[in-house]
């Protein structure tokens, strides 16, 4: 759950010490066979495996060194898997013996998981909170089961906004008690956004090639935009939420955060599909195309696509002529790539939809208590068993977090609810009506494949609530850097199950612009 709170912790003394390290360039990333690991895509890595230019052990060792070198200031990784090198050796052995499935996909590729995604191994699953440190999960999360089956290496857990930013909106984006304050690798004082901040930070800074995040409203799209990486927020139920510390089963979704569209699609292909521990996957599985999603990585993917432009409120840049110019150029690029732009559209009641204090938040507050209590109850062991226990823990141990005053207003509001109520029913009806009469009506009336909106990080006007309340997918792609070097993105959103079209559109845009560049670690 992304928020609009501002960072408060900058650790200036540590920054001054580490600046020479950050600015001195990367490690020696070239293997003995001349393969450069840094910025390598999944396809590049798989090709290097095949040509014996790289091993999974070398890959893991490189990322571990990067984490050791950069994470003390970036705080993108909360915990490293002590079994990662063993898993790498296992992958190398399987590839050498040409075991089934060892020559394609994510086999042997390290992946970082947001620390709300459960792993039944030596890693903790804590949502960034000391309250869950030492808890024992009953099983791997559904998406982790699929990743392990694909041969991916779980290299560790990414930091996040604590409890996926649903403890309080008055805590900075990217901050957690366990992980500290995550930093934007492009401009260290800039907001990394949340809640999947660590997943985006780590991929951007080459601490890992691919990662998973989760989104309830903005938590994949916002950090992806703010850290100049690609994020895919899938249709609700397309990926399993089983074994993920929840906010709302109605809005939560799990998706990839990577440096390129193609890498994100490689991950998406492996994590979608049925999981009988999450009933939503049964209904959503009808959207998965035969042959998977890689077939939609088309350079000419924009050709003939009908793209909607809603100027108000998404293209309101005020007096910022730079942003006006940049996004005018992007729209021109879409036209040049033979997309059909349907301009000056309006979403009915958009101001009501974007007011997070109304129906959406009412429902989330009620759903959170029920969903979290269910998750905590199913743990094999845990220091806390209910939301009430977590609240009491925060009050007792607030000194662990090195802040003078514990902040957990959302926890307290959720605890005060009493399960389903007329209030929740009314909120759900309002959201269904707003979605039907707004986004859905717009898309159908104008026969649109996607809505195209700027994403300017946590302080801009965002489309994420429009997508969130309807369970719709969205893809964020790097779109540029402001005058200070802070990244921003562009978001392509569509109706349920429209991932194939969104992948064609976003890949076409990415290949036509190739905007992303490695981070600069500016102070």
Account of the 3D structure:
This protein is α/β, with parallel strands linked by helices and 523 residues long. The chain has one domain: Alpha-Beta Complex (Amidase signature (AS) enzymes), CATH 3.90.1300.10. It is built from 18 helices and 13 strands. Strands 1-3-2-6-8-7-12-13-11-9-10 form an eleven-stranded mixed sheet. The chain is globular, with a radius of gyration of 21 Å.
Q: What descriptive keywords fit this protein?
A:
single chain, Amidase domain-containing protein, globular, eleven-stranded mixed sheet, two-stranded antiparallel ribbon, signal, Amidase signature (AS) enzymes, alpha/beta, 523 residues
Layout of secondary structure:
Blueprint: H1 12-22, H2 42-50, H3 56-74, E1 77-80, H4 84-96, E2 110-114, H5 142-149, E3 153-158, E4 175-176, E5 180-181, H6 197-204, E6 210-215, H7 221-226, E7 230-233, E8 253-258, H8 261-271, H9 280-284, E9 306-308, H10 311-314, H11 321-336, E10 340-342, H12 350-354, H13 359-378, H14 387-396, H15 409-415, H16 422-445, E11 450-455, H17 464-470, E12 474-481, E13 487-493, H18 499-513
Parallel strand pairs: 2-3, 2-6, 9-10, 9-11
Antiparallel strand pairs: 1-3, 4-5, 6-8, 7-8, 7-12, 11-13, 12-13
Signal peptide: 1-25
InterPro entries: Amidase_dom (IPR023631), AS_sf (IPR036928)
Domain Amidase: 59-502
Number of strands: 13
> Approximately how much helix is present in the residues?
25-40%
In DSSP terms, counting alpha (H) and pi (I) runs of 4 or more, how many helices? 18
The largest β sheet comes out as: 11 strands, mixed
Kindly provide the name of the CATH class.
Alpha Beta
Distance between the termini: 27 Å
The strands making up the biggest β-sheet line up spatially as 1-3-2-6-8-7-12-13-11-9-10
Q: State the shape.
A: globular
Relevant CATH superfamily: Amidase signature (AS) domain
Q: Structural class of the helix and strand makeup?
A: alpha/beta
Structural domain count: 1
| Model regions low in confidence, pLDDT < 50 over at least 5 residues | 4-14
CATH topology: Amidase signature (AS) enzymes
For the record, the CATH architecture stands as: Alpha-Beta Complex
Q: What's the alpha carbon Rg, rounded to whole Å?
A: 21 Å
Query: What quaternary form is this?
Result: single chain
